[in-house]
Specification:
This protein is α+β, with helices and mostly antiparallel strands. The protein is built from five helices and four strands; from the N terminus they run H-H-E-H-E-H-E-H-E. It has a four-stranded mixed sheet. Strand 2, helix 4 and strand 3 form a beta-alpha-beta unit. Helix 3 crosses helix 4.
């Protein structure tokens, strides 16, 4: 009796899974909007963007080419030695209001993953707040934590840990 019930359930299950053929379906039509003319709106192409100020971000002689702020062990206080760097990036953001920055907070591999993610977030938020207080707009800045997941130095000694306790500043197009 159990075998017959199981066989019957198997047949019903297979019958329910059978594909049914019907009329062929076509996708929705796609409207071409490349030639839409909107009064008062100027179309911008990549070659029209002013990149004169962006050159400083890659010039090794410019302070703006430096993109990392380092922290003491178990701290999210921005050290005095990095304040001129933060001020320079804040001035750049104020002068270029359309440019966005992603701040990635990092931690060394000591401590639990959860702790390191929280510490990385506090570090990123500290830098975001300082940039904001120096004039950068809130909508230009995003702070995220990578915890211990993106070490600059893969070692497990004080030198490596010192390099991994940092915030990295990335501009739009770099992330």
């Amino acid at each position: 009796m159990k075998k017959q019930v199981m066989l019957l359930l198997g047949v019903i299950l297979l019958a329910g899974c059978a594909t049914q053929t019907g009329p062929a379906q076509t996708g929705a039509p796609v409207e071409d909007r490349s030639a839409v003319d909107t009064p008062g709106v100027t179309r911008v192409t990549p070659d029209q963007i002013d990149t004169t100020g962006l050159a400083a971000l890659k010039d090794p002689k410019s302070i703006l080419s430096r993109r990392s702020v380092y922290f003491d062990y178990d701290s999210f206080v921005i050290k005095d030695e990095f304040k001129p760097l933060v001020e320079a990036h804040a001035k750049f953001l104020v002068a270029n209001p359309k440019i966005k920055m992603l701040i990635q907070g990092n931690a060394d591999d000591r401590g639990s993953r959860e702790y390191n993610v929280a510490l990385g977030q506090k570090r990123a938020e500290a830098l975001r707040k300082m940039l904001s207080l120096l004039g950068a707009r809130e909508d230009q800045l995003e702070a995220v934590s990578l915890g211990e997941e993106k070490p600059k130095n893969p070692g497990h000694d004080e030198a490596a840990w010192t390099e991994n306790r940092r915030d990295d500043m990335l501009y739009a197009g770099e992330f």
